Amino acid sequence: MQLSEALARTHITRLTEFTCLADVLEPELIQSCLDSQGVATLRRRKLPMDAMIWAVIGMALFRGESVRSLINKLDIVLPQEIDYVARSAVTQARKRLGSEVIREVFSRSANTWHARAEHPHWCGLNLYGVDGVVWRTPDSVQNQAAFARTANASGEAAYPQIRMVCLMELSSHLLVNSAFDSVAENEMNLASQLIPSIPNHSLTLFDRGFYSLGLLHAWQQAQPDSHWLLPLKKGTQYEVVRTLGKHDQWVKLTTTPQARKKWPQLPDTLEARLLTKTVKGKSVAILTSLTDPMRYPSEDIVDLYAHRWEIELGYREMKQHLLESRFTLRSQLPELVTQELWGVLLAYNLIRYKMLLMAKSLSSVHPNQLSFRDAASYIIFKLTQLPSQTPGNVPRDVLDIERNARQFKLDGKRERAYPRVLKMSKNKYPVRPKKNAVHS
C-alpha cells in the first residue's frame, strides 16, 4: 500500500453535502438526465451515478482539492466496510458517467433558470453576448492526439488547447449554451452551433471577429424577434440605401459566392443599419439588424456595445476566481476533459443563479453588480458549514445567503485619474524608444 493511500484511509472528513443545493438543482432533473442518456447504477456501487454528477461539479467548486481527495471528502460515497475510494475507481466512475449527462444537466438547468430569471430588457429585448475563450489541457498523449495547440513564430504552445464559444445573458452572466472543440476549430463555426439556443426577443452582441454575413443572417432568422449587433469591420464594403438621420444609415451588404455555398439560405444581399458616434475622440461604427428607427432609437444603440464586456468578465470569473487561476484542467483523457468543462460551466451557472436570487432581494440591483469573487466564496463557505448544522438551522442558513447580499454590491467604477501609458519592458539589448513610454 502506498503511503498516500494509507494517509487517505486514516484521514477522511466530509467536506460538504450537496443535498443542500437541491433547491437550485433538483434531484428529479438529475435523474431524468441520467435516464435519458441510458446511464444508471444497476448494482450497488460505492460511487452511484447521481452522486458522481455532484463530484464533477465539486471539481470546479473546490479547485484546491485533488480529485481523489475530493471524492473521499464529499458525502457521496455509499458506506461499506472501508470508507475509501481508489484513484482508478474514480476514473472508471467518471468514464461510466460520460460527458453527455453533464451537458444535458447544464442545458436543462439553464433553460429552467432563465425562465425563472425575469431578465431586464431594452426596448423589449434581452441582451446577450457571444465570445470565445481558450482552455488548456494536461499534456497527456491522449490529449495531444485530440486537441491542437496554438503556434506563433516562437513555436507551439506548451499544452493542448480547447476553443470554447459561449452564449451568455449579460445582466446575470447566466450561460445559455456553449460549444467547444480543439483550438484548431474556428470561432464562427462554434458560434453557428449555438443558433438553435437563441432566445426570442433577444439582441446578441458580437465583437468584430464574428463578422460573417452567413452567421449573422442565420442568427437573425433563428427566431421571429432575434437581432445582432457588432462593430463594423475595417474595409467592409456597403451601399447606402437611405439616410435615417444624422450618423444613421440604412445600408446594403453584398454576400460572396463562398458564403452562399456555406450558408444555402443566405440571399445575395443583406440590409442592416449603420450607426456612427464619436466616443472619447474616436469614431465608432456599429452594424446591427435593428432597422426600425422608431422602435430602436439611435442614441442608445451605439452605447449598448459597451455591455459586451460583461462576457469577458464572465470568463475571468470562471478562470481566475472559480478555478483559482489554475488554468490547466485536471483530466488526462479527452472524454473526461469534455466532462470537466461541462462541469465548470454548470458550477458557474449554479453560483450565478444563486447570485441572481441574491440580487432579487435587493432593490434596483442586477446580478452583475454583485462581486462574483466575494459572493462565490461566501456561498461555498456556507455550503461547507451546512453538514455541521442541526437540521432545523439549515433552512435559516440557506436563506441567510440571500439576506447578506447587500455586502457583495460593487461600488461604481471610478474615472481613470491618469491616461494609459506604455511601460517599456526591461531589455539588456538596445531598443528603439517608444512614444509615451514610461521609463523606470
TrEMBL record:
Pfam families reported in the protein's UniProt record: DDE_Tnp_1 (PF01609), Nterm_IS4 (PF13006)
GO biological process annotation, one example: DNA transposition
MF (Gene Ontology): DNA binding; transposase activity
Residue intervals of the Transposase IS4-like domain: 130-350
Domain of life: Bacteria
InterPro entries, alphabetized: RNaseH-like_sf (IPR012337), Transpos_IS4 (IPR047952), Transposase_11 (IPR002559), Transposases_IS4_N (IPR024473)
Annotated Transposase IS4 N-terminal domain residues: 17-106
Protein name per its UniProtKB record: Transposase IS4 family protein
Biological source species: Shewanella baltica (strain OS195)
